[in-house]
Design a protein that fits this description.
alpha+beta; Thiol Ester Dehydrase, Chain A; five-stranded antiparallel beta sheet
Length: 133
Amino acid sequence: MIEQTVEILVRYAETDQMQFAHHSNYIIWFEHGRIQLLKKLGFPYADLEKEGFLIPVLEVHAKFLKYAVFDECLKLKTIIPRMPTAKQFFEYEVYNAQDELICTGSSVHTFMNKENKAIRPPRALVEKLKPFF
């Protein structure tokens, strides 16, 4: 397993009429966490795309336990729980300013080439992840 935590500041535009962070933003934050974790591993998403790898979302789930509010600094933990195969799995945990777990989530992805054909994950990424599993 490998993980990384990034901070997310809830912007005013991300809140709803009740002044809570709108649920749709969590999916965007999950994407931010994935991109940052891949970058940390030495695989910036833009570089992967230049090399012909696309990583589309097949599934995404979120479970909301508490709410976040405007100007609150959240911690988003992104986890790769297992080695990539035909699919790549990510898990997410979002904590509020009091370090309370407020949301859990997951997403499933596949690797595709620019012709939208399923392909194996980049060999270099698999090699980089091996020590963590």
